[in-house]
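Example record for the data management plan.
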Amino acid sequence: MTHRVLLVDDDTRLHELLSTYLSQNGFLVTGAADGRTGLAALESGTFDAVLLDVMMPGLDGIEVCRRIRATSRIPILMLTAKGDETDRVVGLELGADDYVSKPFSPRELLARLRALIRRAQPASASDALLVGELSIDVGGRVVTMAGHPIELTGVEFDILVTLAKRAGRVVAREGLLAAAGRDDVTVSERTVDVHVSHLRQKLGDDSRAPVLIKTVRGVGYVLTKERG
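Corresponding structural encoding:
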């Protein structure tokens, strides 16, 4: 199956390199040299994923990511400067699914891109997880709380499924992303805290006194079986 990818980056050499390499591996790449052009392309076309550079003139990748997430759940892979943790954390906070640091190996980017697209595809069978008022359709990647749909990013969904499958049991903080099959997302320990914080907010769980996703100090997190 051929997948369509939108590459938003002002580096013409990178466009040439990735267009050639990805096309040899089953992808069709559409290029955009700046953020506004990328957003316009996303509105007018159908894509399976977005490769988004952070450092661009005018509308930067952080703002583009924010605008995409306001209307779409398409997988976003951020391209960040090596060692710039701030951009990576902010990108993930805004809903990016993963990142690679420049310079990167095309093979690594291909592997991460395939993983993102694979996770975004609905499974053939729908498995339901029910924890109190929380309902998770694993195959369809749909979450509802008390009957109300909850919009989650790819990473947030995978973390929630991991916690739900272990409801009532503590999941170690440092191993949560790996348990969710997201050990490819390695920013810092703060990454887990960021995603759990967003999950609490979206699920209506008070971060100051959470009762749904509780923190076990020095250990990790636990999704309680009963709310309240």
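Summary line stored alongside the record: The first strand starts at residue 3 and ends at 8.
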